[in-house]
Amino acid sequence: MSFNSFGRVFRFTTWGESHGPAIGAVVDGCPPGLPLSEADIQPWLDLRKPGTSKFTTQRREADEVRILSGVFEGRTTGTPISLLIDNMDQRSKDYSDVAKAYRPGHADYAYDAKYGFRDYRGGGRSSARETASRVAAGAVARAVIPEVDIFAYVSEIGGDAIDYARFDAAQIGQNPFFCPDPAAAARWEALVDTARLDGSSLGAVVECVAAGVPAGWGAPLYAKLDSELASAMMSINAVKGVEIGDGFAAARLRGEQNADPMRPALDGSNDGPLFLANHAGGIAGGISTGQPVKLRVAFKPTSSILIPVETVTRDGAASDIITKGRHDPCVGIRGVPVVEAMMALVLADQKLLHRAQCGE
Amino acid sequence: MSFNSFGRVFRFTTWGESHGPAIGAVVDGCPPGLPLSEADIQPWLDLRKPGTSKFTTQRREADEVRILSGVFEGRTTGTPISLLIDNMDQRSKDYSDVAKAYRPGHADYAYDAKYGFRDYRGGGRSSARETASRVAAGAVARAVIPEVDIFAYVSEIGGDAIDYARFDAAQIGQNPFFCPDPAAAARWEALVDTARLDGSSLGAVVECVAAGVPAGWGAPLYAKLDSELASAMMSINAVKGVEIGDGFAAARLRGEQNADPMRPALDGSNDGPLFLANHAGGIAGGISTGQPVKLRVAFKPTSSILIPVETVTRDGAASDIITKGRHDPCVGIRGVPVVEAMMALVLADQKLLHRAQCGE
Amino acid sequence: MSFNSFGRVFRFTTWGESHGPAIGAVVDGCPPGLPLSEADIQPWLDLRKPGTSKFTTQRREADEVRILSGVFEGRTTGTPISLLIDNMDQRSKDYSDVAKAYRPGHADYAYDAKYGFRDYRGGGRSSARETASRVAAGAVARAVIPEVDIFAYVSEIGGDAIDYARFDAAQIGQNPFFCPDPAAAARWEALVDTARLDGSSLGAVVECVAAGVPAGWGAPLYAKLDSELASAMMSINAVKGVEIGDGFAAARLRGEQNADPMRPALDGSNDGPLFLANHAGGIAGGISTGQPVKLRVAFKPTSSILIPVETVTRDGAASDIITKGRHDPCVGIRGVPVVEAMMALVLADQKLLHRAQCGE
Amino acid sequence: MSFNSFGRVFRFTTWGESHGPAIGAVVDGCPPGLPLSEADIQPWLDLRKPGTSKFTTQRREADEVRILSGVFEGRTTGTPISLLIDNMDQRSKDYSDVAKAYRPGHADYAYDAKYGFRDYRGGGRSSARETASRVAAGAVARAVIPEVDIFAYVSEIGGDAIDYARFDAAQIGQNPFFCPDPAAAARWEALVDTARLDGSSLGAVVECVAAGVPAGWGAPLYAKLDSELASAMMSINAVKGVEIGDGFAAARLRGEQNADPMRPALDGSNDGPLFLANHAGGIAGGISTGQPVKLRVAFKPTSSILIPVETVTRDGAASDIITKGRHDPCVGIRGVPVVEAMMALVLADQKLLHRAQCGE
Lengths: 360, 360, 360, 360
What we know:
Four copies of one chain form a homotetramer. With 360 residues, chain A is an alpha+beta fold. Chain A has seven helices and 18 strands. The first copy, chain A, is globular. The two termini of chain A are 27 Å apart. Chains in contact: A-B, A-C, A-D, B-C, B-D, C-D. Chains A and B meet through β1, α2, α5, β11 and α6 of A and β1, α2, α5, β11 and α6 of B.
């Protein structure tokens, strides 16, 4: 029940600050016997890695993960898996101003109000750097749910949305925006670059789909699958909204429009109905239905901008602040692998919880 | 870590089915010495009570709460507070069809897939009747956070939104819709009545504000105030979306538009800055900033409708189903006191968590 | 993580005071589909019931349990099981002195020191009456672990121990002491009666064995089976010591004496070794070995005695106190079904935890 | 609620195997602003360090701890504190036999039964090496409870007990046995040396006292201070018994003998009574009374011995095994700093839990 842990029986704890010597995660409750090595984790970290294009922060981090425990002869042992990533490119000098004045939209003031002081270097604990630990833990989670296929993508940047008619999953990895619509990707290039050159930033919407989730996962009432996912997504830096399935759009439908009608499975089996729609995002009553689990996540624009904003200092004096340093012009982009990781972590936990109560 | 509990140190557990003898909640971890009696809880239950207008279900329940433990001579003792509400008006006969076929949008199929069978009477455990327990628990939570003033209202029904220029908090209790805009309330009367007569239903958006939350509540990273609130809200029946502050709208802003600039407090004190905006909904880095905490919740339209929907039976045969019985044409309306209760429950827990780690 | 709950995925929460209207438990996380009715629970409560002989408290309680939720058509549904037992024979007048002065050995002073005040009637929340809720919850736990056979007995009262050479399990239910040695039972009759007539009380040792626990239950490191059992037993009123297997006696052995040697199973199977001893009480490294799980529990003498003891009042004045009312002269006796219940509750939880991580 | 974590709001998680690259702990929920550096932790680790005398294992470990997060400019920040200790002296070759046959008394068979396989090198996760992580975490806990003074000592080895009339706390650090009685220490030298030369091992009893614990800590019912301590102690390798206060001896007393009478405080204040005895070990009703918290812990003899014991192989064949390698002839000795650490960890957690519910 600590605050830096997530999950119930498959549970991870992250630690580390942006400018400390390292960051990491401890994954506990992992089933034994699963093949696992650094090579299974590193590719996901590479997807999130900073400095890969001009559309992400120019901080350079190798983000090489080491497994320090819980794996023996290439398989998980059932004991805690300690994952460690060294911080290489900390430039503490960039952050000296931040020690004195509060950056609006950042955790600066709130951390000071809560804890009395803070590690101000690069945002300290509240830095998005922490999400590397999640991505590493998420790679372990994927090993627990091989039946599930998870993919996320950016569906909207700065209010400019993809055209679902042009949706092509194969495109997601082909552009720096995790964008499934090549036309949108082309537009975003200009859009994000303009924001970057303006010293400004843009918000984004990330969508995530998990296919292959069997019916029956989710632990009502207060570990409902939608609750767990909402909690997981809202814990990601800069996220301010979560929708399961149609989300807010469902609030504008009538009952018959929002129904997900069922028909017998086409193969005549009784393994589960054929659903004719998926407004509910694959979850009913907090339990998966066997349809794809779908959600949308809103990322606010990066709070670190070069445009001056009114603020106050620690001493309560008026000041204007611009946030220098190396920042993502659109933090939602690198949020994609983080959203996927959190989806994997929730589903792995729910799989084991379901098994605990209901057996295989 | 059970599934029917919520909260970390101020923690409640609910139990009970729609058509069992009673429902209830156990509230654990409540500070001692707080004045509490049934009279402090009943008014909140009355707000949620069914059968109060033609816009809500015609089920008749007195919803009288009894305190069975944890209170002595009018004050909380610090031991578990057991709250019990008898079920009076169960008409199990209404639900006989439901035993055989799955109601789309309901938990029927998912519960069967998870548990192998279910208490089908009135939705059993997945019935919105459970939310009465939350409202009762929420009344206890309010006693823990007297410094906080919580109010919620419906801002949108079936896509028809209030006009914020006409927002009048005093109106909220003056109409059957918890609507702060009298003009909208008048329109909704026709809107909901039409849907009801059509045998259909409507979705709604509920907004909630908590004023008086001091800066510093929230337990990063995985008990961030926004995570906890999202989890709490998404656990309410029919909720499919949560926004903190501007939510998805923030994803369409640029960084300088979304900033919440600060200025020194007008009284010259250093008790916290004056915020010039509140896009973040009173939470930064998962911690309250001292601004009002604001969120929005999307309720899907009630799944129980009289319009036939395609479905399958337990045996896998095709069928069409209409859901008779007594249902809310817009379940979001009675969601208002539930949203308030969950807000109170989260804040009470976070207040105590903050005190645990950081002292008074 | 509330304080009045126990268990991790099979989890129960108790509530209620000695002299409130009722006491109860909510059992959460129970697997679905298990046959359960009041008739499965009541016999265990009857074993613990007060007023059955002159060797137990003369308080009269029917201790009739009602199941208020979580069971449908005779089977558990997987939703919370609410169990309620009415308090019938509260004589609050007996306890008026207790309001003012602290009974040594009781929780009176400690509760006041912690909470500022307390429900002093009959010990309030700290009364052994609460253990009825545990026994009820334990009966549900037994349904989860049909493969396990649990029995407990008193092995020692007031320092007078049974003779293991005369151990006869069939005798346990044949005397008011849960004593497996008829000769000891005969001696204890005089011993306990003398203490009772003296207005004094006696301590006892209870032993418990769980046969049929398969190898592999227990969740190292901090939910080791021995840790969980120790925590469970030490939570019972008046318990001050717990030994797993040989316990303190093992601390006096040499390594070769304390070893539990193994040989191949007699049937030639490789389902687990034949152990030639069980010093470890069936647990190694926190995990069950397939041998019987064995533990011993020390109950202190009932603190309520008619012999005056020096104490102080709430106001800090010196006073002498005798504790009138109806009390067990040896609270360990009625502890037997409670110890069994806690054993069942721990094992049910560990069975499900094992299944979560390692599958069936 | 993971298995390798302990504590509720002040919570630590350990990871690491005997022969992996490192071991460590993550401490979460620590209050901010406490002075902390490696220099505050290292001395406690040095007390537990192997290889310091011929009475402990000859494995050589520097056991140098590094703080990787959660401390900034010499003070705790309120974020997770990651502690890492490199493993330096792993001699995996010593353990090749262990891969094939089960060492009686060790976790070998149980781990295989649970997980299907295990890291057999040096006991892997079940090695007492893990306790270094606890000692490091315990040092952080001490910073949380400066008002408490904790000390532990060995009171008995191989059945040879200290003479309490000769108890001298100043002696504890003056001999390799943490023994407060110099005469006993002298006897133990021969005793342990004989066992060591015989290739055998001895059990021990460790006692621990925490002075300065204010009245009011402990969270009844299922986080009672005695429950938490029992769970904590029983989680230590080789521990098989725990007594709070008089423990099993209390079961042999009559009520009036076991009472802890009270008198008004000598200074006339009403800050708490003067207790005339402490049979209860400073805990009543699960809550501290303000007296010293006292407990006793039984360590079985080290299971690793050079005397052959009957066992079976992984393949189910009969075998005799001797456990070569470097082992403690009496593991209880090095258990002393571990018992102290667990005491500190429980008390720090309970202090914060008390503050959460009841304020300062």
